[in-house]
Amino acid sequence: MILVLSICQLVATLALGALVLLARAYAQEKGKNLATKEDIADITHQVEEVKAEYARQRQALEHAHQQLLKQSDQTHQLSLAAIDLRLKAHQEAFAKCQDFFALAHRRPPEGTEKMNTLLQWWRENCLYLSPEAATAFREASDAAAVHRDLLDGRVGHQAVSENWQKIARAGGVIAAAVQLPSIGTELARLSGFSAEGQPGSGTNGAPSHRQTP
């Protein structure tokens, strides 16, 4: 009887010990699982933050891109409008250069009103002219204003000739400022092939001034 009780006690002790070990192992494993779940939750939160930040940056880049496209389109439209105004100003300047030849041989005050009108036009349109064209127009107007005085003052043929050249060259400079490539050359440029047999560049058919002082 005592032996049986001892055996039962031993079995109960072993069983209790086994239960304690199992309980410890279960607690440890549960702790690991809980820690793993917390780690996953933290990682998931960080991933979501990165996604949100990426979305914000992408939205900002898309907005900046749209603004850049809008600004570029506005600049392009202004450039096209400016081209029309500049072409018009150069054409008018070229036509007005013809007046300098007649004004160069008039004595003040004859022609003074016309000269003032030309200078007023230059002040109102010089920004639409190329720097070379604007300078040539103003030099021609100044030369025309003093040419009669140079002739009357008998300053010498060289001085008169040099002054006259300022008047004569203005039209060519203005025409060259708006010189456009030939259609064949432009098509070749756009297609990527070299243009062969193209005519030499000219001045858009602008007549040359070969008058003499």
Description:
It is a single chain. 79% of the residues lie in helices and 0% in strands. By secondary structure, it is mainly α. It has a domain at 87-191. Helix 1 (2-103) runs parallel beside helix 3 and helix 1 (2-103) packs across helix 4 (157-177).
How would you summarize the topology of this molecule?
Blueprint lengths: L1 H102 L8 H14 L5 H23 L3 H21 L5 H9 L22
Helix pairs in contact: 1-2, 1-3, 1-4, 2-3, 3-4
- Helix tally? 5
Radius of gyration: 46 Å
Largest sheet: none
Unreliable stretches covering 5 or more consecutive residues: 193-210
- What is the terminal-to-terminal distance? 153 Å
Structural classification:
mainly alpha
Structural key phrases:
213 residues, mainly alpha, 5 helices
Summarize the structure.
The chain has five helices and no strands.
